[in-house]
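#onboarding

Welcome to the new folks! Below is a worked example of what a typical request in this channel looks like: someone posts a single protein sequence, and someone else replies with the predicted structure as tokens. Don't worry about understanding the tokens yet, we'll cover that in week two.

Example request:
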Amino acid sequence: MYQYNAFDQRFVEERVEQYRDQTNRFLAGELNENQFQQLRLRNGLYVQRLAPMLRIAVPYGTFTATQLRTLAAIARDYDKGYGHLSTRQNMQVNWPQLEAVPDILARLAAVQMHCIQTSGSCIRNVTADQFAGVAADEVVDARPYCEIIRQWSTYHPEFDWLPRKFKIAVNGATTDRAATHVHDIGIRVRLDDDGARRFDFLVGGGLGRTPVVGKVIREGLPEQHLLSYLEAILRVYNRYGRRDNKYKARIKILVRAMTPGKFREQVDAEWEHLRGGPAQLPVSEVERIRAHFEHPPYEQLPDEAAFLAVERLQNRSFNAWMRHNVAPHRRSGYAIVTLSTKATGVPPGDVTDEQMDAVASWSERFGFGEIRISHEQNLVLPDVRQRDLKTLFDLACEAMLGQANAGLLTDMICCPGGDFCALANAKSIPIAEAIQRRFDNYDYLHDLGPIDLNISGCMNACGHHHVGHIGILGVDKRGEEFYQVSIGGNQADDASLGRILGPSFSRADVPDVIGRILDVYVEKRSDGEIFLDTVRRIGVEPFKQRVYSTQATVHAGSSRPKTVAARLHTGGGPPAPRIEKTVRAG
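Example response:
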């Protein structure tokens, strides 16, 4: 991964001291709330429902064991002993004291980390496929281009104050694990027939109040024009994007208003003035950055499939974990491991300081000291020797990170919701826990097959409910929490937006509603069909009929689990104690 040079280090350290001065001035009353707001946002600090929240940048979701240990120490020393993994491959801490944030930033800077541009109307953390560089289906490693874009966009003087926040994702594999279709700009990197790297641009994707799947506006762009074409897009957006209404300020609104064809014409006209200029990407710069992503010193190892087959036959839980949480590696004898944070009773995406320390140690013991964050809010070890998989599995189970559910129903995306976020209409985490408890049966989950279930606490869609195979949205009805359910969304290559079933449900009803949806799928599916295939084949109506025809018999008054997810603070009292639970990995 990229290593700071002297300039990078000085830049980040100076920024820490600038922010320390700004914080001291605010605490002394020399800056008011409005004056301080944009300063703190540019350093990743939000004011949430109960306390500040600090969002820490993890560029393209990659960090080292040393960096993860630092995050663990920050969680211990400045928070409540845990961090939260976001869908943008960042980490958030939910309870820092405002006056302590400069000290946190200084500790981050000491290990080449920061919080710059993790908030505000600027270009946010650039995301990528969590398996980049190691995936068996990869065509081009996206990480060097993410790093190039990160360096180009950080404090870019023309794009530091855009009409609204801006998100870019890059994917270089045949499978789109970066959700490029639902970003302001999604970039697909590929090789042409001559082996040259080419870039396809999707623009105007996004979720929130107006969900849109991005449109392709350029295909086959040569490598040297990557930054100039990005600059052309951003210039058009900066010039024509609305600033009078934040709900209509995203680039997706502009592209739709102009039409994709007209928008492309504007971009191409702007690009004519930029191509060949200072934004031209020299080959030497690409090679300089790419050198930071050279492959580690892999051993020449045999494929251990036969040996693992014996272990899998002897251990049903290990076999389940291998099936769902272990992905093929491009090098023989190695594997990619997803460590699921989705243990029943724990908020999806939350990891404790002890877990962070453990994962950091595993990354060094079983790999090369590198860890990834996935879009699905899990941790990934990219370079595990196959012969070490069983040992790693046993350790992961002890640390409550050995759930064999990656890609299954309980591997859900979930925003922090009303327990933390001041914008949320409803709580997300209790819904996630109720579904986890209702469907905590591996045989049933495995029979259902791949299902993406995404939960958002409000229309801002931080839980990406629009593109969940099953999406759940928290809504407010006369001061009470209700939940709207949609089906048929997808974030991958054939991206689609889910369709709402109908009127919303009470919190107590949601697990039963999900159960009825799954019943229809099991009854109607054809051989080999996954949930999304069945929804697309038969449509929404059979699911709607089942859910609403039986609504009168749904147990609206039934009790839900009394224990809510660990470490929640619902106001008026101390945080709920962490639930200690033995996790059944299979």
